[in-house]
Amino acid sequence: MILKSTIDRIMEATDIVEVIGEFVQLKKRGANYVGLSPFANERTPSFTVSPAKGIFKDFSSGKGGSAVTFLMELEKFSYPEALKWLAKKYGIEVEETVETIENKEEENRRESLMIVSAFAAKFFHESLLETDEGKAIGLSYFKERGFTTDTINKFELGYSPDQWEAFTGQAIKEGYQPEFLIDSGLSVKRDNGNLYDRYRGRVIFPIHSFTGRVIAFGGRTLKSDKNVPKYVNSPESEIYHKSNVLYGLYFAKKAIREEDNCYLVEGYADVLSVHQAGIENVVASSGTSLTAEQIRLIGRFTKNITILYDGDAAGIKASLRGLDMILEEGLNVKVVLFPDGHDPDSYVRNVGTNAFKKHIEDNKKDFILYKTDILLKEAGNDPIKKSEVIREIVESIAKIPDSIKASVFIKECSHQLQIDERALLSELNKMKLGKARKDSQQQANRAVTPAEDILADEPVEEIKENASQEKEIVRLLLLYGNKMIDWDGIANTYIGPFMIAELNDVEFEHPASKAFIEIYSKEVENGVLPEEQHFIHYPDKDIVDLVVTLIATKYTLSENWYEMHKILVPDEQVNMKATILGAIFHLKKQKVGKMLQSLRNELQKTEGEADQEILLNQYMRMKKVEKTISDYLGSVILK
Description:
Elements: H1 4-13, H2 16-20, E1 27-29, E2 32-35, E3 47-50, E4 55-58, E5 64-65, H3 67-75, H4 79-89, H5 109-130, H6 132-144, H7 149-154, E6 158-160, H8 166-173, H9 178-183, E7 187-189, E8 195-197, E9 202-208, E10 214-221, E11 231-233, E12 246-247, H10 249-259, E13 262-265, H11 268-276, E14 282-285, H12 292-299, E15 304-308, H13 313-320, H14 324-328, E16 332-336, H15 344-351, H16 353-363, E17 365-366, H17 367-379, H18 383-398, H19 403-417, H20 421-447, H21 457-480, E18 484-487, E19 490-494, H22 495-502, H23 511-525, H24 532-536, H25 541-551, H26 561-565, H27 576-605, H28 609-636
């Protein structure tokens, strides 16, 4: 367990904008920062970070919390793992109440896979640099490819010895469980139950997560045997989903933000060579065709993608249709070809950084115009093929969500295709209308609710109202609990303890609100007035979600609102007595109403006169309580 004093130091050092800014492109808007949600597919930013409060709120997915919560949600860290990541970032030594032993049998399955992958990366890297076989085969290969020692160390490149059980044997000797060696894909199980190394005799390219942890590997053979696959990649696992990963993104994300552009290449070596040349905003799809998830990853940092192709015409044509996905996500796509026989890796090594950059600037072309050019050349003078090209180009333009941008491409393509602009616009509108109708039908189908799923209105409304009133109490405690009372007849006490005392006879039902009140009450008993930061950094996710939802707001009222529009917005702090007592009595009235309903139900069931008289007396007393509360609310609170 991490010491409270260490947690406090981590929290004090953490800049939530800086932390989240490593994963999401943030723009300042007033006192807050906004960006596209990393948890939902959206085109309009609804993700907000408040540096003053130290919280984020994603209004698309409903997620919210501190920097710790963000890491837990995005990277699936546990609470201690998120704290340790922040501690490492800010150079804070983590002190724990018990001495930790290297956990080879971690209960957390996901963390076990991370630990064994980290061990493997270290083993392969040391095999490359410190063994005779690794130096003679693996290191000499990387050096021949022009990779420097700095690049080899930065990307943790490695070598797996050409032996059946070199890695597996060492891992088991070190205490790692065979189960995790198999599930991570590092070892393969024979029919007789024995394990052997998946990557034997290959140079190793570790694949890093968003936060820099090794989650998978790519292994390249150096043998010329055609029966041996050139590359072997990690299988899917709990920590590695290849459609969600881009090779090199961990090392490129800062440069992508700064350059506002991402270079997309095909292979590991392309990334390494271009990065080494000082062009660090470069990534590659991780052993798979480009996916929508990978495009959205890039979209967090920039709206501009430049595809660097190797000049293979057949490969380019095969990938054209797939690149329409980039347009659908609202990103701008440019394409650059290299001379025949060259890929980004060979070209940058051949001509150097400056000439490489110049080639990109001189030859980059908008994807739509490039695609038009390629398909027109293939169609030649065949009118049927040309009509198919026109339809395919308009299909691509129809995927662009920005109508102004789509109109510009229609104009450009009309010249290139030698066809009237109005004809292209007509075809574009037909496609968009067809898509709108299809989407509308799908939405209508989803909206049909099975009869058995429809709940009675009254219970649902009652539950919602109850939770709402309880949350209002929590909100007021968060905002004003540490403020002194200076009301008529009440003074020299704080709002927090006053509210807790007034509510000691009220049983909260909403789970998170109930837990909050219990925590708050215990802190008050200990002489502490807990503020919002105490709960924002609380280990219980439900508490954090409740607190952030209550204190976060999607919109901020301008300071000049009244001067500009002469509209007065009521301020609940002007009459704090009415605000606090109003909330307390509204909740009490609600609880009394439930008790009265319960008594009415019992009266209907009870037959004995004596029992009925007792219940009736209780009922009348509760009615008096209800009237007292109602009179107060009616005379003081404007609702």
